[in-house]
Amino acid sequence: LTKDRYPNMKRGKFAELQGSHIQHFINLLGPTRVLTDPNDVEPYNIDWIKVVRGYSGIVLKPKTTQEVSEILKFCNSERLAVCTQGGNTGLVGGSVPVFDEVILSMSLMNKVIDINPLSGTLICEAGCVLENLDSALEEHNLMMPLDLGAKGSCHIGGNISTNAGGLRLIRYGSLHGSVLGVEAVLANGDVMDVLNVLKKDNTGYHLRHLFIGSEGTLGVVTKASIHCPPRPKALNLAFLGTDSFKNVLNILQLAKSCLSEILSSCEMIDDPSISAVIRNLGVNSPIGQFPFYVLIETSGSHTAHDEEKLNAFLEKAMAESYVLDGTVTNEPSRMQVLWQLRERIAEALLKDGPVYKYDVSLPVEHFYGIVPLLQEKLRGTSAEIVTGYGHIGDGNVHLNITSKFYDQDLVHDVIEPFVFKWVADHNGSISAEHGIGFKKTEFLHYSKKPGAIALMKQMKTLMDPNGILNPYKVLPED
Ligand code: FAD
Ligand code: 2HG
Ligand code: ZN
């Protein structure tokens, strides 16, 4: 881990870690929850896609809000920068240090505090793994309102801090709706308790929203209360092949009108994406090869009712030749295999080499437009595999470009200017759900007006005057 990995970035004027700091942390947490052995610390310095890495020498593992508070109070007074880390599955380099920031791992704050089946509310600590929460809720016939491929590792605190979207946003909405309250520790160690469990509470500014999507730059989320929907009794999954993007849109429109309230996911996969899953992970597709595939999930409370609706939709989609082939199942093991074809694309693409990722929102008619343009533009370069897939129901395409090696010039001079200008020209957003993190700060201006960026900076200064919380992330350099 070399210190000059980012030659154009200047380390902020923060203190460097001293032996006396380490001793203070050991006094606070005990020796086993302060990691300083470089072998133990290294995994926390490297992000999931292995392109962003820092050289922090310490990982702290608090177990209580009080400990988080003591840590931040000390770091603030000593001017030690802090990078909070959840499951480290973030895709924009926000979860790892850029230089030598103290890493605050939330992994031991993983207790479920309360599940109320009557109100459908969950209160838990921020380090709970998303999948574990969903399993805990299952006993009470409830479910988590979000689901994503990283569910086995990501934390609810990380989901909240990135405002993660995922596979079921079309049905359950964003975390700005589902998160009822949070407890967060501010940069100076103060505990901000807005852990509301009520659905309605219009008592002034809704402070919890400051922590949803602010990527660890305004505070450390320590607890959350979440509104959890009833677990559906009937689930169906259809995996459909089609010949054109036009027909993908036809399928989406038909699914919305025929399935309406039972539609719980609508995802699109293009052929290069599914080919990577088949080739690199050995998962088989149950149908022939098509340029595009659509996954449609229905969830409801009445099996016969849902099947009737789904069949009517499929009959119409086939009659109109929107769908050329497909398979439908309600068997849990088969559904799991089908979901792998979608959920494991990110993992599969990484096996072919470094991946340049662009997570963009677009008006749905432009969802796939940039993919063929880039395929043409990048033909004959080191980065020939261009794929597009994602949350078509929410207008959120994941543009992924796989390269034989990391080609800085191609990324900076060719791909990024083209992608971000195209997205801005088509009234899109340069980050639909992954956030800005470390990798997208210089492009924020494509999606936020100068006045909005200025207000964001003022809020940061107000809440974290010494700038110790996740520096170099979200906000562009002055
Ligand atoms: P981390 O990666 O550890 O951190 C992410 C950011 O949140 C960092 O800035 C970090 O500082 C901050 N943070 C973490 N915990 C806290 C806390 N307690 N308090 C304050 N700040 C904190 N994202 C989507 O939106 N939709 C998807 O469908 C989706 N699918 C994915 C699939 C895969 C296979 C992978 C690898 C990632 C996917 N992601 C997706 C991206 C990622 O945003 C989510 O995985 C998740 O929300 C990150 O949670 P985490 O606990 O891993 O957070
Ligand atoms: C998904 O929806 C994730 O699978 C990851 O958001 C997207 O890797 C990506 O580009
Ligand atoms: Zn996604």
TrEMBL record:
GO MF, one example: (R)-2-hydroxyglutarate dehydrogenase activity
UniProt organism field: Laodelphax striatellus (Small brown planthopper)
Top EC class of this enzyme: oxidoreductase
Name under which the protein is recorded: D-2-hydroxyglutarate dehydrogenase, mitochondrial
The keyword Flavoprotein is annotated on this UniProt entry: yes
UniProt-listed Enzyme Commission number(s): 1.1.99.39
Catalytic activity: (R)-malate + A = oxaloacetate + AH2
Source organism, top-level taxon: Eukaryota
Localization annotation: Peroxisome
Record Gene3D superfamilies: 3.30.465.10, 3.30.70.2190, 3.30.70.2740, Uridine Diphospho-n-acetylenolpyruvylglucosamine Reductase, domain 2 (3.30.43.10), Vanillyl-alcohol Oxidase, Chain A, domain 4 (1.10.45.10)
InterPro entries according to UniProt: FAD-bd_oxidored_4_C, FAD-bd_PCMH, FAD-bd_PCMH-like_sf, FAD-bd_PCMH_sub1, FAD-bd_PCMH_sub2, FAD-linked_Oxase-like_C, FAD-oxidored/transferase_4, Oxid_FAD_bind_N
